[in-house]
Every structure is written in C-alpha cells, then in structure tokens.
Design goal:
- By secondary structure, the protein is an alpha+beta fold.
- It has five helices and nine strands, in the order βαβαβββββββααα.
C-alpha cells in the first residue's frame, strides 16, 4: 500500500496540485503534465483572451533530487521546466502577439522563510569548498530557495515561474506596423522602368 504522500511517477494536469516536496526530492521522483493557461488565473489576469486547445496549454515537468556535490551536497532540489505560448499585448503598437516561454529553474527547498536569505545555509562561511557540481570553483548562480513542505503547492510554483517569465513591458521585436512603413518608404522598383519625362521632352526637341 502506498504512503499518503506518494505520487505516481508521472502525473498530469490537476492531479498533482500538492506533493510532499521533501519525499519527492529524496526519492528522485518525476512528474509531468499539461494544464490550460486560462486555469492559471494569476498569469492571465490583465492579458487578452488566450487561445483554446493545444495552443493554450502549459506543459510542465518537475524532477526531484538530492544535491550530490559541492555546496548543494545533501540538499533537496526540484528542477522545474515550464513551456507556454501566452498572448500578450505589445506596448508599442497595442497589438496582440504570441510570446513563447521556455523556462527552466532549479529550486532548493528550505524549512522556513528565515532561511530564504540565509547565505550561511550553504555551508562553510570561509568560502572554502564552494565548488560547483563539476568542481570548477566558486558557484555564483546558486539555486533559488523556496520554502518546502509536505503539502507543497506545485502548480502555484509553476504559475509563479510563468509570471516571472512574462516581460513587464511586452513588445514585438519589430512591430508589424513598422514593417509596413518601411515597405511604403522603400517601394520595389516597377517591372518596366518608365522613361523620365525630361528625357522624352529632350527627344522631342531634337526632332524639331
């Protein structure tokens, strides 16, 4: 009989609202699934209407592990990968456009909010032995810390990652209107080049 906190190795959609995050990391579990973007109300708040069907799905996966080397030795970790294609509104031309999101984040589970800003929790305060997983020296980009629990809201974390991935001021790389203006300013040469009216006038003079 499975434990009350045990989750299937692969889960989909809303079947994995909450997990025992520590057990998930310690046992190296994995889960993946999809959820309609419109279900994540904090993400779509203030956005235009989102597409239905496959185009409006968020694809997510999570993998747990315990750190094996360096500063992360023995620490519970979650690897989260989120993909989505929300429709945003360009703040230059005010037109909607699809903004692809493909975000991966490494999270370290800590016991309390007091540990979130506690750099000393990474170990030796002298800095000795601060090596990355490959033993290449000091680690500058340590994982983000989140408060773990035995009832960890995984979908809320996925929603947070999407919110962080949406630009504060979304814009086209090049607005469609700008392309049209460039096209109007530099029209293509006509297939048959008409002679200059001044050249025609000059020929008429010579005939006289």
């Amino acid at each position: 009989m499975s434990s009350p906190h045990e989750q299937p190795r692969e889960c989909k959609g809303l079947n994995i609202k909450r997990i025992d995050a520590y057990a998930f990391a310690q046992m190296g579990k994995e889960a993946q699934g999809t959820i309609p973007l419109v279900r994540l109300t904090r993400v779509v708040d203030g956005l235009p209407e989102q597409p239905q069907g496959d185009a409006g799905l968020v694809t997510w996966s999570v993998r747990g592990e315990m750190g094996r080397t360096g500063l992360l030795m023995g620490r519970p970790l979650l690897h989260i990968h989120v993909q989505a294609n929300p429709v945003l509104v360009c703040q230059r031309c005010n037109e909607p456009f699809v903004y692809p999101i493909d975000s991966e984040v490494l999270l370290q589970l800590v016991k309390s909010e007091a540990d979130l800003d506690d750099d000393a929790s990474y170990g030796d305060p002298s800095g000795e032995g601060d090596e990355d997983e490959e033993g290449n020296g000091f680690v500058s980009n340590l994982p983000e810390k989140v408060v773990g629990s035995h009832h960890f809201d995984l979908l809320a974390q996925i929603e947070d990652e999407l919110i962080l991935s949406v630009p504060y001021v979304p814009k086209h790389d090049v607005c469609p209107g700008a392309l049209a203006k460039v096209s109007e300013a530099s029209p293509e040469e006509p297939a048959v080049k008409r002679p200059s009216p001044f050249a025609v006038l000059e020929q008429l003079k010579h005939k006289d």
